[in-house]
Design brief:
Elements (H helix, E strand, L loop, with lengths): L2 H19 L23 E6 L7 H9 L2 E6 L3 H12 L9 E5 L3 H4 L18 H6 L1 E2 L2 E2 L2 E2 L1 E2 L2 E6 H6 L6 H7 L7 H14 L3 E3 L2 H10 L20 H15 L13 H6 L3 E7 L3 H7 L6 E3 L13 E4 L7 H11 L2 H11 L2 E2 L2 H4 L2 H4 L11 H12 L12 H16 L8
Parallel strand pairs: 1-2, 1-3, 9-10
Antiparallel strand pairs: 3-12, 4-5, 6-12, 7-13, 8-10, 8-11
Length: about 425
């Protein structure tokens, strides 16, 4: 199959995705602020659906303050949580939790019918402005922001030093292109690395490709109409795809993305020297590479940097405890909670007071060689400027992105050439 034929197939799949989305939501009636949270309607417990670790004392603090137990309905990953939420919205709220964590990439899909969600009260000056914009639908706030995902590159300085290419974050930054780094210079550095070592340069180019997509102002959909672009004529995606696919064909990548069963073993076996690492992934790498020395985060990122991910807590309007659920969503996204999240998972806060707190910027990360990751990612976010907000993501974004990045995986696996 040629690349033109494959893109045509993607276009057909996009049409099916769009059709499915029209029937994705139920008939819940949205309400502003939910029911009043009073002692008379206080539940014994509230449920929250999420896929990441909670700070150890955060939920206990809510219970101490309000006398309500919080039970986490935990999922192995965001995709599983997305499926349950999609099914619940199409079944008038059946099986949904009181509060749901929703990832940015599939936020627009879940918000296709705003009435399915409680309109949340405005909390002035809590978040960076663009996070509030992302969490709003038609001017109605439906999600309280947790984190943002400034993009960085984690690299093993022992491995790149052994290859004679770099010795620390500064020289690694120069190696991939310095202040003028692009995806082309980054991938060329990868070719140099694999020529000088017995390891792969990067865990997965499909993940790097996804990060590059996130830097585009509008990758797949028209921001004005929300309609998908004609994929056959989407030259920006075609050209970007070929850049990464050709590097995959050159053996730069191990083809093992985060979430793959062998990802943790890849760190332990030093199979690769770099990982594209949004802030929320730093803690995941530390867990999977536990005991492996040399990992650092570079202060340089291709094309100036950007954002990957970030999530929101939202309250389904069909819930029985919407008023108290809103209070829980507020509690879980306070600046103090954001600092706790940072120390638990490494995710970078979207809350202004948390970003400015020295406890974020000055904390040294033992796994990453004592680096102050809060400062590193804060500087990366500042360098990215407006791009830190990420590009436009409509209802079709997540589905189209999956279809396109799967093409990179086929090349990594040797199942297709870049042109196929």
């Amino acid at each position: 199959m040629t690349i033109s034929t494959r893109i045509g197939a993607v276009a057909a799949s996009v049409a099916l995705i769009s059709l499915a989305l029209t029937s994705c939501s139920g008939s819940g009636g949205g309400q502003q602020g939910g029911d009043d949270a009073t002692d008379d309607n206080k539940p014994e417990k509230l449920t929250v659906a999420a896929w990441m670790d909670f700070p150890p004392d955060l939920l206990a603090a809510f219970e101490d303050e309000y006398g309500i137990e919080v039970v986490v309905n935990s999922f192995p990953d965001g995709a599983s949580a997305q499926t349950v939420l999609r099914n619940g919205l199409s079944s008038d709220g059946a099986g949904l939790s009181d509060v749901h964590l929703i990832e940015l990439d599939w936020w627009a899909e879940m918000m296709a019918v705003p009435e399915d969600w409680v309109e949340l009260p405005e909390i002035p000056d809590r978040w960076v402005d663009w996070k509030v914009t992302q969490g709003s639908v038609d001017g109605m706030i439906t999600g309280y922001g947790t984190d943002i995902g400034p993009l960085g590159i984690a690299f093993n300085q022992d491995m790149v030093e052994a290859a004679g290419l770099a010795t620390d974050p500064d020289t690694f930054g120069d190696f991939i292109g310095g202040d003028a780094a692009t995806w082309e210079t980054f991938l060329d550095a990868g070719r140099d690395y694999v020529a000088a070592s017995d390891n792969y340069f990067i865990d997965s180019l499909s993940s790097a490709f996804q990060a590059a997509i996130n830097l585009l102002p509008s990758a797949f959909e028209d921001p004005e109409s929300g309609l998908p672009y004609d994929m056959a004529g989407n030259t920006q995606i075609r050209d970007l795809f070929m850049t990464f696919a050709e590097a995959a064909a050159d053996g730069v990548s191990a083809g093992i993305p985060i979430g793959h069963a062998d990802w943790g073993a890849g760190f332990q076996n030093t199979q690769w020297a770099t990982v594209v690492t949004p802030a929320w992934m730093a803690g995941i790498i530390a867990d999977n590479a536990d005991g492996v020395e040399g990992w650092r985060v570079a202060s340089t990122f291709p094309d100036g940097g950007g954002n990957w991910g970030g999530s929101f807590f939202a309250v389904p309007s069909t819930g029985k405890n919407t008023g108290w659920a809103v209070k829980l969503a507020d509690f879980l996204t306070s600046p103090d909670a954001a600092i706790d999240w940072f120390h638990t998972t490494g995710q970078f806060p979207s809350q202004l007071d948390a970003i400015a707190n020295p406890d974020i910027a000055e904390t040294e990360n033992e796994f990453f060689g004592g680096q102050q990751l809060g400062k590193v990612y804060g500087d990366l976010a500042a360098a990215a400027g407006d791009a830190a907000a990420g590009g436009y993501r409509g209802e079709n974004f997540a589905g189209i992105q999956t279809l396109v990045t799967d093409g990179i995986r086929l090349v990594e696996a040797g199942s297709a050439t870049p042109q196929e």
